[in-house]
Amino acid sequence: MNRNVREVALYRTLLYMPSLIPMFAMSFIFIVFVNPQFGIVNQVLGLFGMPDTNLLGEPGTAKLVIILMAQLGAGNAALIYLAGLRNIPDTLYEAARIDGAGRLRQFTSITLPLLTPTILFNLITGVSGAMMVFTEAYIMTDGGPDNSTLFYMLYLYRNAFSYGQLGFASALAVLLFLFGMLLAGLIYWLSRRFVNYDVSAG
Q: Which sequence spans correspond to the domains of the chain?
């Protein structure tokens, strides 16, 4: 993504484009893709002689489909990584090449250490997003089959608006907030051992 090649703009566009589609719309698109009767996924599997499969109707595959669909939002993280890469001075790579460092040595000694602040940011936001998965499970499976996709936020939503247990749902929300803060604090504390904020120290 950070190379000066002719196709790089196309690669960036293709990578980031799914992030522009609202998650509820992407969920409906995926429902069509994995439909057991006319979905494109089963049509492709049929070309290899595999039987039609209801991917959203099986506990194991339903969770896998939702997890894979969530990766379509990776364009946001990739854009932040690109910004981090562009913040690394080219002079560091030039000096490393003069010293005879290869691509692997440049990556381990320059790119990776100076990209650690960006990695930390994406790690915290990624963990936060993982704890708040809701739209995909609500639209695609509504927590099924057999509660295999009943993620925490959907469980909280059900207790609040389906069962009317507002007190219990509020307690779940507070627990989620406290756990999120604790986890973010732990990640930030551990990051002091590996995050490098000094650009000139690469």
A: 8-201
